[in-house]
Structures are given as C-alpha cells and as structure tokens.
C-alpha cells in the first residue's frame, strides 16, 4: 500500500485507533482530539522504555555498592535488559499481530511496571538481574505494539509525518532524559527510585490506553512460528551477548567469536525457515521492498552515533571534566532539545512532501558534522565553544534521520504485518546500538592504551584521545550511511489519479 492509497483509505473509512462511544462514531473534532491524546499515551510508553535503558547507567555505581556486586557482575544490570529486549523484539511484534495490538500493549505495560517494581525492591544482585531481564522482555512486547498502533492509527501521510515526528522526538529525548533523571534520583534519593519511577508512569499509560486506544486492525489470525521464534531470538541474543562480552573479554579468544558465529548461523537458518514456514515469524515480503529494507538498515546504523556519543561524552563529563551526575545530565539538554526540533520541526514538515532520502541524507551528513566537531574536543576544551556545537548538530541531524527512517519503514505495511514491521525497526536499532557501542568501546580502549604507551602519566589526555578517535570513525560511518540512503530511500510510486 502506497502513501497515496493510505491517504485515500483514511478519507473513506472512519477514524482509526478510537473506541466508539455508546456504539456511535465520535464527531470528527472529538475523534481527532482522542487520536492525538492516544498518541501522547503511546509516546509516554516509549519514553519510559527508552528512559529505563539509560537511567540505570548513572545509578549503577550506587547499586553495585549497595548490593555488593563485584566488577565482573555489574555489567549484567545493563546486559540482562539489552539481551531480553533486543532478542525478543521480533517475537513480541508477531505476538502483537496475532493477539491484537492493544491487548499486547496492555500486557506489555502492566508487565513492565511490575518488573520495574521487582528490580527496585531487589535484595540481591540476582533479583535485580531478573527484574531487568523481565523489563526487557515486556518492553519487547510493548515497543512494537505501540509503534504498530501508531502506524494503523495515523494513515494520512501528513498526519503520519506529524505523529512520527512527535513520537521520534519522544524516543530521542528518552535517552538524555534518563541520564538527567538518573542523576537527580541517585544524588538526592536512592538508586532504587531509578527503577520505581517507571511504576506510576506505567499506571497512567495503562489507564490512558484503556480509555483512548483501540486496535483498528483487530486480530490478524494464524499461529505463532515457534521454530522461527527460537532461531531468530536465539541468533539475536547470541550476537547481542557476544558484543556485550567483547567489552570485557575482547574480540579475540574463543568465547566472543563463537557467540557471533553461532548467532550468524542461527539467523541464516532463521531466514531459510521463514521462506518455507506456513506461518512465518517474519514474512519475507516485509523485507523484500528495497525502500523498507534500506530503512531497516539505516535504523541499525544510525543509533551507533547516538549511543556511542552518550557513552563517551558521559565519561568525558564525569571523569575528565569532573561533572556531578546531575550536571552531566543537564549538559545533554541541548542535545535533547535539538533532537526534538529535528524530529518535529524539520522531518515532520518535510516527510509528507519529499522523498525520504531528501531528509535522511542531509540529516546523516549533519550528524556526521556534529561527530566531527566532537572528535576535536580536548581534555581542557570549553563546553560552550567546543562541545555544545557538536551536540546541537548531532541532535538536529539524528532527530530528523530517525523519525524519517521509522516512518519510511512502517509506511504501507499491511495491517497483518504492522507489529512485526515495527518490531524490525526496534530490532535493528537495538542490534545496531549493541554492536556499534561494543566496537567503538574496544577501539577507544586500544587508542587510549596506545596513547599512554607514548605519553606515560597523561591519563586524561589518553582517555579523550580514545573517545575522539572513535567519534571520528562514527563520522565516517554516517557519511557512508548517507550514501546508502541516497541509493535506497526513494519515494514510493504514487498511483495515477483518474
């Protein structure tokens, strides 16, 4: 279904995504109001999922000391969430297609809130790891359900662009908001509140979803592909786990290469199985479209920039510049604001009228320029003169890029595939972020060690050298991604009128 046909369908059918009141269709004004309030509910759910993936970073030292974790175990606070979330997204998207998006969304919201309470009350490291894993598992059901509800609710191209602009801005702000909130809660309350904060928010989302959301596509039918779920989830978990272990074990040895090779083999078998399964977990028709496949690819490449920058700049602010946890979060505020502007004021206004590549290519090049600026930061650099311009350029470029990529990947997807298509976007983002962050972290560590070998005692300068070298390679990656976007993201053919 093209954007034009989607718009035509939207004009000829009742407003989607709304519950009739007393069996009668709501008035156009009331329907429009309810639909946008529904968008707020979906955006809030996405915010808390993404916020929870970063809020724990600043709280981790306090949690480690409180629960008596050793250094080798502390990574599982982050890794257990990433493994469950990234490995189960495809399965969560297909479950949403089979049981209904709203039902899956409500289960995901309730489960995520309960898992957050468990993690916050954890008396031991094992319970904390389990709570974080459950957060990731329910997030893998919540996230694709939310995006597919958004896709099937806003079908008009102009409304879709505006809705995805708001949704993308919320998503982009989630990571930075997590750093700010994590710093405030840890510094002034307790690290456990970084877990508890999701509970009241999920209660609000749950009530709002019951009142404002409905599943216009209904139940898709069919059966769950258990073999495909095992192969796909197993392959993704192996790859994400391998990349997470590379930070501590390195890329040599036998563990990390074995995990990556095993994951690649499982994914290859997954593709072969999907081609012959009568009820595939990921119908190959979803990825055969060149434009959609290009959007999935870019969804995996783009987060490398933002996640790598968050990782390095957080350490730069706290370790090199000596910022407090709260001040570090506040230092990221200009980035958050620029992501919002890039999503809602640039991309959302252009997407309905121009080919996606005309937004994504400049956005990626703008992000590359921001990375290039940050790659020249030194240990004694001024925040206003050297760091701030890089954050703003990166935020504008990546905000415009990610919103457009999400809208492009999900545009025209049949209702029966809306959940799995949305899950593919999130899967690409999580996998790309995990792989990219691990590669960049390893590169930075090597550059830091090499610098120290030639400049003994210059620890701060060596650390910054490792960070800036990695950010320079990110700039190169974004330029290459822009070339791919120019080749793959073309505007879909619109049907001739009359």
UniProtKB/TrEMBL annotation:
Q: Where primarily located?
A: membrane
Q: Which PROSITE patterns match?
A: MFS, SUGAR_TRANSPORT_1
Instruction: List the subcellular locations.
Output: Cell membrane
> Which domain of life does the UniProt lineage start with?
Bacteria
Ranges that cross the membrane: 36-60, 72-92, 104-122, 134-154, 166-189, 195-214, 226-244, 250-273, 294-317, 329-351, 358-377, 383-411, 432-451, 471-490
Q: Which SUPFAM superfamilies match?
A: MFS general substrate transporter (SSF103473)
Please report the record's description of how this protein sits within the membrane. Multi-pass membrane protein
Q: Record's InterPro entries? A: MFS, MFS_dom, MFS_trans_sf, Sugar_transporter_CS
Q: Which GO terms describe its molecular function?
A: transmembrane transporter activity
Q: Where is this region: Disordered?
A: 1-30
Q: Name one GO cellular component term.
A: plasma membrane
Q: What is this protein called?
A: MFS transporter
User: What's the source species for this entry?
Assistant: Streptomyces cinnamoneus (Streptoverticillium cinnamoneum)
């Amino acid at each position: 279904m093209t954007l034009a046909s989607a718009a035509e369908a939207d004009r000829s059918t009742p407003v989607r995504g709304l519950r009739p009141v007393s069996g009668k269709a709501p008035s156009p004004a009331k329907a429009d109001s309810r639909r946008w309030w529904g968008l707020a509910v979906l955006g809030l759910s996405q915010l808390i999922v993404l916020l929870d993936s970063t809020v724990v970073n600043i709280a981790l030292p306090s949690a480690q000391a409180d629960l008596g974790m050793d250094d080798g175990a502390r990574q599982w606070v982050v890794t257990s969430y990433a493994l469950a979330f990234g490995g189960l997204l495809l399965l969560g998207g297909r479950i949403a297609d089979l049981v209904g998006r709203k039902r899956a969304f409500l289960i995901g919201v309730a489960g995520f809130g309960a898992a957050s309470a468990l993690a916050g009350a954890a008396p031991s490291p094992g319970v904390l790891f389990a709570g974080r894993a459950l957060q990731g598992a329910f997030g893998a059901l919540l996230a694709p359900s939310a995006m597919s509800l958004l896709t099937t609710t806003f079908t008009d191209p102009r409304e879709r662009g505006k809705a995805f602009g708001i949704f993308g801005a919320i998503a982009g702000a989630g990571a930075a908001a997590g750093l700010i909130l994590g710093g405030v809660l840890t510094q002034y309350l307790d690290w456990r509140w970084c877990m508890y904060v999701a509970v009241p928010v999920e209660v609000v989302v749950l009530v709002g979803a019951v009142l404002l959301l409905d599943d216009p596509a209904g139940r898709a039918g069919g059966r769950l592909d258990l073999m495909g779920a095992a192969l796909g989830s197993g392959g993704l978990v192996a790859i994400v786990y391998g990349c997470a272990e590379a930070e501590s074990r390195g890329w040599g040895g036998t563990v990390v290469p074995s995990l990556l090779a095993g994951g690649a083999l499982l994914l290859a078998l997954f593709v072969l199985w999907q081609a012959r399964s009568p009820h595939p977990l990921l119908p190959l028709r979803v990825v055969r479209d060149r434009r959609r496949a290009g959007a999935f690819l870019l969804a995996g490449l783009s987060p490398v920039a933002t996640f790598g920058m968050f990782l390095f700049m957080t350490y730069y602010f706290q370790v090199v510049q000596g910022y407090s946890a709260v001040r570090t979060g506040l230092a990221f505020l200009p980035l958050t604001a620029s992501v919002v502007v890039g999503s809602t004021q640039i991309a959302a206004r252009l997407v309905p009228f121009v080919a996606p590549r005309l937004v994504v290519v400049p956005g990626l090049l703008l992000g590359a320029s921001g990375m290039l600026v940050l790659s020249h930061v030194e240990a004694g650099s001024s925040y206003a003169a050297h760091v701030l311009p890089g954050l703003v350029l990166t935020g504008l470029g990546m905000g415009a890029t990610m919103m457009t990529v999400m809208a492009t990947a999900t545009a025209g997807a049949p209702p029966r595939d809306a959940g799995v298509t949305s899950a593919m976007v999130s899967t690409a983002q999580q996998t790309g972020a995990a792989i990219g962050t691990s590669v960049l972290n390893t590169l930075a560590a090597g550059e830091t060690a090499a610098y120290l070998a030639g400049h003994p005692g210059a620890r701060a300068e060596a650390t910054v050298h490792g960070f800036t070298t990695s950010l320079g390679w990110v700039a190169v990656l974004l330029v290459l991604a822009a070339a791919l976007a120019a080749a793959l993201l073309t505007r879909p053919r619109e049907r001739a009128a009359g």
